[in-house]
Design brief:
The complex is a heterotetramer, with two copies of chain A (395 residues) and two copies of chain B (377 residues). By secondary structure, chain A is α+β, with helices and mostly antiparallel strands. Chain A has eleven helices and ten strands. In chain A, the strands form three sheets. Chain A has a four-stranded mixed β-sheet. A four-stranded antiparallel β-sheet of chain A has the order 2-3-7-6, with no helix packed on it. A two-stranded antiparallel ribbon of chain A has the order 9-10. Chain B has a four-stranded mixed β-sheet with strand order 1-4-5-8, with helices on one face. In chain B, strand 9 and strand 10 form a beta hairpin. Classes of the chains: A alpha+beta (395), B alpha+beta (377).
């Protein structure tokens, strides 16, 4: 890779800034309210607005839906430094991400590392261009934390694989065109060594989905069933029976995303919400127990943010992060659950209202939803196991 | 008095458990919810319960009741807690009936108690005015006009308020918010002019109402004018202990289902209940539940015995039960894992019921504060 | 056993009451301040007062140092009901226990169940008469929670055993005449099956002791060393290699004692101590966080007491107690530790004073000592294991 | 500013660690204790530390100091926390020096700071008057008489008070207990007429004193009369952060020793660190300690940067560190088991030091309250 001078970067920044200012529609310059408001792509694309469509197409045409991917695969071919500049300039204008997809965040990195040339050409390009909506098929009802205990089988039928089994927690499977899956290709091998990474067309005969209703209400999660589904052999990514290493690569990727991102929405600090709900008495929150609980939470939360900052600085200085992402995943999700416990307490009987729609009972439903934070993406117990084993060396 | 239930109480408990398991399991609550039943409970079932005497269990015989005692009532509530049975048992059988029993005059008792016992009348207490339960802070005004009072204000979280026939409204006839003196209970017809009832489905799939009062005429005082606080306190103490018994049943059932799941669910080739970290957390819950069981029976006995320390016992019981049910239902979801997050699995219903029960008649912080206040620190 | 009528019992009560009133000296009618103030017996008896001596001798002569033991072994031969009457009458007058010893509370029950006639005759009689001070040799430095992992060996030398090894936490070993020990008699057997129960004279050649200083200061604990100590064969209790069942029997006995007794000293309720230390502000403790912590503790404490009461009532009604004693041991000791955490917080910097003597730094030292509560007599972790396995059936 | 230490700071940290490990390990503290050393620390060692510049690390160059910054000082304190080194570093190097630096006039600084830096002068703050730290509640009276003030009252928990040369006494020249205004700092010779010093050995084997003042004449004011509170707050904020750094070292060392023990100690044929319940508890501690590390470096940087939010950061840091060191040292004893209860094993020293440090300059509840107060809730 050629080195880029600071001067080049400055030029790039100026050009990018000018282009964004000219091409990013006004209505796109704000944080989306929810994941429903972002553009997901797919064969049956759904735009929230003309501006959203326009913005997506303009960015797509520059390869900036996937700025760092090679141009040959529809990417922008930017260097790390250029990408940083692009992100900074987008943040400056508060531009929305033009295309959000698991293809970009999860399958793409896997294909770039493990895919063959044909797969890269076909799938990465389609992902960059937002033409295919991908979903993920890892979890299974019987497996849970023991991901490698999966039972969905893919049998080698000579010219194709025959897949049967069930996946669960396949987000947006109802909308998806394709699914990337872990399947068992050697039932006799030890459990980690008989797994392969397979791409499956959701339109194939024998694939069906069922939405999952959560304790918080409707969700994006589905169950996905495979009943003797034929899958072309070229849809195998990486070596046969070597899918576990791809899965591990992606899981680490996912965990650091979950742990690191923090809450994107800007909201009032918790103590301010508490004052609004409970009021002050002589300058102090009119519930001394909640006051202490909230102070405790805020101290821990700020401490967590500083720890993310410190770890980032340490990483920059060359200290390995190691399994610390497990700690962030653990602490962030436990804090989020606790925050909702406190919000429930602050809002008393009002917080117990459920109503008919999600918005009517938003707090209660959000609260219920947070209970899944310490389960999805690796349970809290799994994170503690990892910390204990890989950081503390206990085992 | 020995901290165990006697044979009669055990018989009631056993037969109630069988009846509820058959007629009102968690699936029945799910059905009410999915059908968007606005009544919030199964009227025919409530009728059957009334026929078995459940609504009149602690009502004296002279008013058609069974006079069976509170330890017995507690067993019933505990079993209803296990099955998450929705019924007016709390709003009417526990609170409404008690307010009338403790504060009413002979005529009121004769008129209302037999009807409650027969399952024909829903009488509920309208007390909370904001998110936090705090009776002394009541502001709803009742102004005397001739022989009547005129009520103005708003009540929230009125249990079964959407179907109640009579409301027991706590209003201020004197003093200011924060004063214990100056509160009066009124018996008001739910259909009275000026009353507007807003139905709300709660998290636990039961129902409550927001009720606004605009120049509502109330002629019937329950108890003494300005002196309502003391008897109200008794009613609420009994209510807290009763709902604690119900919550005990809910937490025991949730815990037992969790332990069962720990034994059945396999991960990494072994039952997850073989992991020591989960074992210890389960053992800690076991201990807290044992403490809760003792508190509930002790508090129920205290009602039967007219224990002068009832308020303190009610508050400590409601506080401890509230924290423990929070722990147990949270841990239940976590230990069930992804399955526990789905609506298909019933364990989530227990957490949701727990959350509503926790804030009913005062939450943890309220009762912790009250407990300390009653001891003088 | 012959049945005793209520009338007989009433007569017994009247006689006992009269005798106690006539024979228990005034100065003995009060709760002893500490374990230092009670009479422990032994070959070199130490009486706190003439009254203490008189009281001990009178009770001893009636066999009432061990009221329920057979008269043939120096006991009182009382039935369970009579013993209850005696205890009630002693409590009525607040009479002190005339003789306190591990011989009575621990070795005695073991000998009564597992000892042969000669052993009973010799040792029980000496215990009843307060002539021998016994200590207990179970724990070893290498064993800890894994009691059965003990290494002290007793080799069969034909006419005697030769014992070598080390015991730890042997309370009062410096004062003791004899020690009852668990020793390994078959090093090749599985660990629970090669253990025997042996009685050893502390005066034997090769026995030495060293006092243990705790983090709280001086203690009654010792280490006891055995260096080729000859022990007569008749000092084996029960079958060779069957000592573990005796140990288990005694451990259950000990656990239910520790869990059940509660604090014998009458002291102010915690909230009153808090008021004394911190003061009230507008009727509430002038530290709202401590106020809540103390309320929480008191609620749990009363709940624990009620649970002991309920369990006793259930036992009377025929419901088995099972492993519940593990719960009591766990909860009681954790509560006691927490109480001292709260007392430390209440007393702030004053609580940090250590001074030169135990009394000067009593709170700080008592606090340190409580940390051992959840370790001795089976750690909290062991109790949770037992609850989990034997009550919940997890394993 | 990146949340990492630079090379210079790392060098200081490393060399300090080596020095302390050799010269002042836990065994040295045990020796001081067993010899009933009334000074409370090793004078020769303190002299050596001073020669290395430790006592003057943050003192400006014009007063003979190194002006090395607070992040650097924090590294030193952290290492001293690891070895539990007893020295006047906190009483004099951290608090005494700062009070003079921030409040003193040029003459006072020139007179005192070089002497402190040289290890020749012990200057300690006499502030607490009762069990709980609360500067605004100071009652000790200072009444003006001519050019002097007359001090009457009692101070407790004066660190190294038994050997101090100079006392910085906080007294009330106006207002009443609870007022922030009306406090003044005085520089008083420890030998002055009317002063009685009672030596006390603390739980951590360090020393503090109870000092009573009876008509003690004080001529030298440090800072402004009646206006002492503001600068005192700065001094105490720095003190809290400094002692938090020391506590961080103590908790890290205690934790590392515990993890080591978990790996070595075998029960039931396996290392006890293979038991999942202990693993999870260790993992939880690891996380809390990570949070503490971030807070300490952030707070140290905040001093160097004159961050206006310093008070809030000081309080949150002292609160969090206090709770975490409690957790870590309690768990350490429990995980060491019986061995941990013996005085022969060093781990107990860490718990004892933790307890004293926790209450120094305000305990958990004080700082939690102050944190909320500073945010306005």
């Amino acid at each position: 890779m050629e080195t880029i001078t600071q001067q080049d970067l400055d030029v790039f920044r100026a050009e990018t800034r000018a282009w964004l200012e000219a091409n990013c529609p006004e209505s796109i310059r704000q944080t989306p309210k929810s994941m429903e408001d972002v553009f997901w792509g797919g064969s049956n694309p759904h735009y929230k607005s003309e501006d959203q469509k326009r913005w997506f197409e303009r960015m797509r045409d520059r390869g900036w839906t996937t700025p760092m991917w090679p141009k040959a695969y529809g990417g922008g071919g930017l260097s790390k430094q250029q990408n940083k500049v692009l992100l900074e300039e987008m943040t400056r204008l508060n531009c929305q991400t033009p295309l959000f997809s698991f293809g970009i965040s999860m399958l793409g990195p896997a294909l770039l590392k493990f895919g063959n040339e044909a797969q890269k050409k076909e799938h990465l390009t389609a992902i960059s261009r937002g033409e295919v909506w991908w979903c993920q098929g890892y979890s299974e009802p019987g497996a849970g934390s023991d991901l490698a205990g999966l039972q969905t089988r893919a049998e080698d039928m000579g010219d194709h694989y025959l897949v049967s089994g069930q996946k669960v927690w396949t987000s947006y499977a109802e909308n998806a065109d394709m699914i990337f899956c872990l399947v068992r290709t050697n039932p006799d091998a030890k459990k980690h060594t008989g797994i392969s990474f397979l791409l499956i067309d959701m339109q194939s005969e024998g694939v069906s989905t069922r939405p999952i209703r959560l304790i918080s209400g409707k969700s994006v999660f589905c169950e996905t069933f495979f009943d003797n589904v034929k899958v072309p052999k070229e849809n195998l990514v990486g070596e046969l029976n070597a899918g576990w290493s791809i899965a591990k690569y992606l899981l680490t990727h996912e965990r650091s995303m979950i742990g690191g991102i923090g809450d994107v929405r800007k909201e009032k600090p918790l103590f301010q919400m508490a004052i609004d709900a409970v009021g002050l008495d002589n300058g102090k929150l009119d519930d001394p127990v909640l006051r202490a609980d909230i102070a405790r939470w805020m101290i821990d939360q700020e401490g967590l943010m500083w720890t993310i900052e410190r770890t980032t600085d340490e990483a920059k200085a060359g200290q390995p992060i190691g399994a610390k992402s497990s700690f962030f995943k653990y602490y962030y999700t436990e804090q989020n659950k606790l925050k909702y416990e406190l919000l429930m307490a602050l809002n008393g009987t009002e917080a117990a209202i459920w109503g008919d729609t999600y918005d009517e009972g938003k707090l209660a439903r959000d609260f219920c939803r947070t209970k899944g934070n310490s389960i999805e993406g690796g349970t809290s117990e799994i994170q503690l196991n990892i910390i204990s084993k890989h950081i503390l060396g206990l085992g | 008095m020995a901290l165990i239930i006697n044979e009669e109480q055990q018989m009631l408990k056993t037969s109630a458990a069988e009846f509820l398991k058959e007629k009102a399991p968690v699936a029945a609550l799910r059905k009410l919810r999915d059908e968007k039943n606005q009544q919030g409970y199964d009227q025919a079932l409530w009728q059957q319960m009334a026929e078995m005497g459940w609504a009149s269990l602690v009502i004296p015989e002279q008013y058609g009741g069974l006079d069976f005692g509170y330890v017995g009532l507690g067993q019933l509530l505990e079993e209803m807690g296990r099955t998450l049975t929705a019924s007016p048992m709390v709003s009417t059988g526990l609170v409404g009936a008690h307010a009338i029993l403790l504060a009413g005059n002979a005529a009121q008792k004769e008129r209302l108690l037999p009807a409650i016992g027969a399952g024909e009348l829903i009488v509920t207490l309208a007390i909370d005015e904001r998110r936090q339960h705090h009776p002394a802070k009541t502001t709803m005004s009742a102004v005397k006009q001739g022989n009547e009072y005129v009520l103005n204000g708003k009540k929230v979280f009125v249990l079964d308020g959407q179907v109640a026939n009579q409301l027991i409204v706590v209003a201020r006839t004197a003093g200011k918010a924060g004063d214990e003196a100056g509160l009066t209970m009124f018996l008001v017809d739910a259909q009275a002019q000026g009353i507007e009832i807003g139905h709300q489905q709660m998290m636990d799939s039961r129902n409550a109402a927001t009720i606004s009062f605009e120049n509502v005429k109330a002629a019937e005082v329950l108890g003494q004018v300005d002196q309502g606080f003391e008897v109200l306190t008794q009613v609420l103490d009994i209510a807290c202990i009763g709902i604690s018994a119900e919550m005990l049943g809910t937490m025991c059932e949730a815990f037992e289902r969790t332990v069962k799941y720990l034994k059945e669910r396999k991960q990494f080739g072994v039952p997850i209940g073989s992991f020591q970290a989960l074992q210890h957390r389960a053992a800690l819950m076991y201990g807290e539940i044992e403490i809760c069981k003792s508190m509930v029976i002790k508090a129920l006995q205290a009602i039967d015995q007219n224990n002068p320390d009832l308020s303190r016992m009610a508050s400590m019981t409601k506080a401890k039960i509230g924290e423990t049910i929070r722990l147990v239902t949270n841990e239940a979801i976590q230990m069930f894992g992804g399955i526990g997050m789905t609506d298909d699995e019933e364990i989530g219903f227990f957490m949701k019921r727990a959350r509503v029960a926790q804030v009913t008649f005062g939450d943890y912080n309220y009762h912790l504060d009250r407990y300390a206040r009653l001891l003088g620190f």
